[in-house]
Amino acid sequence: MLEITLPENLSQAIEGRLALAVQLAIRAGEVTLHYFRNNNYQVDRKRDRSPVTQADIESETTIRNGIAEHFPEDTVSGEELGTIRGSSEFEWIIDPIDGTKSFISGVPLYSTLIGLTKQNEPCIGVIYIPALREIVFAAVGKGAWYQMDGGTLQRATVSRQSVLSDSLFVTSEVANFGARSVSAAYTELERAAYITRSWGDGYGYLLVATGRAEIMVDPLVHPWDAAAVIPVIEEAEGRCTDWSGKRSHLSGDLVATNGLLHEEVLNHLAVR
Hints:
Layout: H1 12-35, E1 43-45, E2 51-53, H2 54-70, E3 75-78, E4 82-84, E5 90-98, H3 100-104, E6 111-118, E7 121-129, E8 134-139, E9 144-148, E10 154-155, E11 168-171, H4 175-179, H5 183-192, E12 195-197, H6 201-209, E13 215-218, H7 223-226, H8 229-235, E14 239-241, E15 254-257, H9 262-269
Parallel strand pairs: 3-5, 11-12, 11-13
Antiparallel strand pairs: 1-2, 3-4, 5-6, 6-7, 7-8, 8-9, 9-10, 13-15, 14-15
Helix pairs in contact: 1-2, 6-8
């Protein structure tokens, strides 16, 4: 299991929750690895036909139990197990396996996402890729931090590429553009970028935060897909908004860039 030493300059108010978020993401990720590339589990389909497995349920339960032990006053919302309301100003927003389609296919690009909002504003985010042992996490005002395979913890920063035609554009699922009737926006952005790949879900946002991709676009997202990645991208000196340019994890779409390309990308996404 990965071991993380947090930076010393984190404020006391946020430090406890960030430390816990990192620990729980790693712990839940280890749960998923017990099932990954193991055919001894059942794949069910939810109402929207998206897959769900016992690994999703067990890893989310692991996170919820850890939060209940340390911060029982906080609200907890998760993709699989719904919302338990608390009395504090904090809400944990969980996606135990972001990229379950990759997970059930044996592809190691799925992630565990843990986001935290304070008064409904994203303030902490963790993206953990269990099968690759890569993690990036952030707290607002405290920077984004990256570690790969137990190596040295380092600041995460976006690329400085300012030319769209030299940039890498990633997305989770091309069909989602069609499902939203915005296929022209995808075609326009694919044509404008240098390389386009579907290395999406949480992994795509990690690529942007660590400077390996310049653009990550999702036409359809839920709060549990977005809450964790917004602080990570912003603290890595990038920009993460909905398609209208608003900072929100509730809008239903999301775009993350290195910041230098953001307005240009938004203009391409406005094509219908």
